[in-house]
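Exercise 7.
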Amino acid sequence: MSLYKYLPPIRVDVLRGGLISVSPANSRNDPFDELPALDFDFSAENLRQVYNQRPKLQHQWVNAAAYINNRQKYKAALFGPGALKMQEKMSLEFGALCLCKEWNSIPMWSYYAKAHEGFVMEFDEKSKIFKKHFGKGERIQYGPRGKVKGWMLTPTVRQHTRKAASWRHEKEVRFLWAFELGDKRQVEDDENPGQMKTVFLTPFPKETLTAIYLGVRAKPEFVRSIMKNLRKWGFVNARLFHLIPHHEDFQLVPTELRVG
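Solution. The predicted structure, written as tokens, is:
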């Protein structure tokens, strides 16, 4: 099975340098990504303990009995900021390589590959080398958020595999990555050329790249550059395709290019 990475043309440095992004949750375009859904319930004694530990909350309720009438307000005040802090902490330690199960998704080309000007990388997920490097991928489940319940339990719900149903068209497969020393780099910002941004990059096995698809609107000079340099960059087996619109249907048709 193949998996795909959509990229804008400015990210040609992924091919040139052999480094790919493993993004932390708080840098992705979904604010709910890996954000825990906390739903703890409290007894009166539990609540007193929280009061003692968090004096700043005491002014909201005079006593434990007030919790019964202000349950949702209390949960929002405590768990909303708490969940964001958990997401922030995890983002300092872990990222993910986010791939797609399709290369021909028109929406994905539109907003991840600069309106079809960019390219898509095809990886062989079944390759032993790919599995050894990135581990086992997890398919994202689309639907309601799984809640973490109980009294101050360690989160057990797999938040990193859950996204809203509105993201279903992305057909995402995610590979978790523990950040290592040297992963953090400065690269040019996709949306603000000339400005730099912080990303986390890791080398990837070049032999696992089986094809590259160039967008319908890829600039001619960009196409020529890929054709000229792909083998020089170390991708000795990757095929190269340029997409054109189908003459009747809403389909992207690949035309293979010679790499020299």
